[in-house]
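User: I'm putting together notes for a lab meeting next week and I want to include a structural view of one of the chains we've been expressing. I don't have a solved structure, so I'd like a prediction I can at least talk through. The sequence is below, exactly as it appears in our construct file.
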Amino acid sequence: MARAKTRKAQKTLFYCTECGGESARWEGQCPACREWNTLVEAPRAASGVRRQGSESAVGLSFGDSEPIALASVTRESSDRLSTGIGEIDFVLGGGLVPGSIVLLGGEPGIGKSTLLLQVAASARAARHDVLYVSGEESAGQVRMRADRLAPGAGEVLFLCETSIERVLRAIEEQRPAIAVIDSIQTMYDPQLDSAAGSVTQVRECAARLQRLAKESGTTIFLVGHVTKEGVVAGPRTLEHMVDTVLYFESGPRLDHRVLRATKNRFGGVDEIGVFRMVAEGLQPVANPSELFLDERSAGAGGSAVFPAIEGTRPLLVEVQALVSKSAYGAPQRVAQGFDRQRLSLLLAVLEKRSGLAFGDRDVFVNVVGGLRLAETAADLAVVAAVASSALDRALPDDAVFLGEVGLSGEVRSIAQVERRLAEARRLGFSSAFVPSRAVPSSAPDGLRVVGIENVNRMMERLFR
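Assistant: Thanks for the context. Below is the predicted structure for the 464-residue chain, given as structure tokens.
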């Protein structure tokens, strides 16, 4: 009996979804990366079957390789492959690098398949061979969507398959410039005793696609489903294996989508591309700042404009604040698109340094358009919007606010002030409140730059 239990236990392993590490038994904390509650059970590979971590599965090996000097390596062509969609090329750093793997993640129904079908149609229109592999939809279903959203996709090669062996064989035979795998969670290796979408299958299939991409030069798009936490389902090693990780994001009930690069070996990270969802599909937004400021009300209290930097792109966003009498014992602090703890810190600074009381008031802060502001340069805009709502006094409609606020109320310098101010002036703003030490020597024509030493100085200039 004991031997039977031992043999049964040896048929399974526990894999960490964060680092991909293995454990013989379940533990609350992964012994490799020390993350909690990340171990999931998966069948152990049978004897003689390719094992995870072996040379043929994870990692690259090209024959009997020997160490050589980098100076003797022949440079590969640096020509990138354009997707035909400017916003995607911008996020990727100028286009697709041949032989790379791009992972696209996003919530169900956000438009991942639609976006890649449009990429396939644009690439085919540019005379590039494209193979679209779907493990979730039939050829008829994809054809219906293509007729409505991507009319030029008629010559794109299509394969309805979930076996990774057949998918690899099709790519080797067709040698397309671009291959789309929709999705990686539906692919399975018949040599592994586990279901499609398991940690073992996802990691193994991605590793084999990675090897083929590097050997053949085919650029491969992988569609990845996300979990309720907003990360791609499967082992975290999947994001380490690919060259680029893109996330398709959208706020609730919004008609625009944000494509964000969180990893890019061939370009900058945190670059964003903005698309608008229309009946004909996803349309790139050439000027995102105008989109996010399109419905801003003139003369409204509690509204400030902040010139953000997303990757290398300056972007103007509206920060809204609402301060109202609290109806409960404990006042609420609610922030959408801004760190709530940072908001509490700024409220404490305003109360201590400027005399505004928030002990019996609810404070709500919202970044319009569903964007998330992670940089501390947005502090001054948040402070201005909160003070405007608390005093019921509107801020100047033609002003932007940027600067980091310290605990003593001082306004600290930030990066890339010139680029932010240039974008503000391009959209018609005529004044800017910036840290006094960050006032540029030459401001854009028509833009009045006001140096602010501390929040009291800003309050005097705005609400005296």
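A couple of points you could mention at the meeting. Residues 418 and 442 are 9 Å apart (CA to CA). The radius of gyration is 26 Å.

User: Perfect, that's what I needed.
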